[in-house]
Amino acid sequence: MSSKKQSQPAVRKPAKKISAPRVVRSQDPATRDPGTIRFGFGSAPASLRK
Amino acid sequence: MNQTPQPVPAVTFYGAIPGCRAPIRADPSVMGTLPARGFQYCEALRAASSFGWYVFPPIDFTLQWDGSQILWTYSGARAWTPLTSAQFPNYQAAFDRIAPARLRGCAPPFLTTAREPGVVQVWTGFFIESAESWSVLVRPPANLPRSLAFDLYEGIVETDRWFGPLFTNLRLVKTDVPIHFSTETPLVQVQPLHRSAYADEVSNAFAVVGDPHAFPAEAWERYEETIVKPNLEPRPAGAYAASARRRRRGGCPVHAE
User: How far A13 CA lies from chain B's nearest CA (Å)?
Assistant: First the structure.
């Protein structure tokens, strides 16, 4: 009986790692926010003391 | 019969960023993603899915969180930028041209990080108002498979009294991977809620019958009618859906006599 070697699953290359952002700028003039307007719970004070 | 006319429209969306994708009525097929069987026969799925409106991000954008800092970029940007708060691209000047002079410099930010790690507030580009005594529930799109990379908080806003930006807060979950938001995928589902529906008096007034021995005869009869009979004497598929749709066509569900 011939022992046919079972084919191995093809070795898969590891998924390409999503690269981190390559170009990071400290500021984008088109989206600069003066910080005048805040709303929502993000605008609430961090302290729980009233 | 309707005694009180339904407010028309119940909710008004004001597009504050010219050219943004308009909200659309939420879809009973959840943009074609519901199983066909559910779409055809399950009125509960259809009703929940199509209740309210889909609202989309105002632009394609991407966030990446490393557990501490959030970077973001958007369609058309040449680089990533650390996020604390950001205007919609080139919006500050556009807002100042459109808004009354006294409001210049007061454009709402598009993205704002909260103090809590990984929490980002996203403005949809719309303001919202609702008819008197109506609020809106802002929530993730119903029955739309969700990204595992972030969660959305839900909120009920009394938009008949509070006129302002329609926004949501999301909590980033995955770190070190880009998390993409597309104008093709609804970000939130906005649902009108009559204030009486979520009043404390309603939520506090509930009953529990904790033991089947205590079920009144009427409960058994109703179980027999809705569940047992259709199994023993099969009716056409979708009988509940057909009856629910008939009832809905019969009149206003809020003000029905």
Answer: 19
Which residue numbers of B have CB closer than 8 Å to A's CBs?
Answer: 64, 71, 73-74, 77-82, 84-90, 92, 105-110, 112-115, 119, 121, 164-165, 167, 169, 176-178
- Show the tokens assigned to B207: 């009953």
A25 to B81: CB separation less than 8 angstroms, yes or no: yes
Query: CA B28 from chain center: how many Å?
Result: 14
How much is the ipTM here? Answer: 0.80
pTM of the model: 0.85
pLDDT in tens, B210-225: 999 999 999 999 999 9
Measure CB to CB from residue B108 to each of A24, A28, A37 and give the nearest one: A37
Local structure of B81: helix, strand or coil? strand
Question: Residue A20 above 70 pLDDT?
Answer: no
Instruction: Spell out the CATH class of B11-202.
Output: mainly beta
Place A43 in a pLDDT band, splitting at 50, 70 and 90. Answer: confident
Kindly report the backbone phi and psi dihedral angles of residue B124, in degrees, each rounded to the nearest multiple of 5, phi listed first. Answer: -80, -10
The structural domains of chain B, with segments of one domain joined by +, span 11-202, 214-249
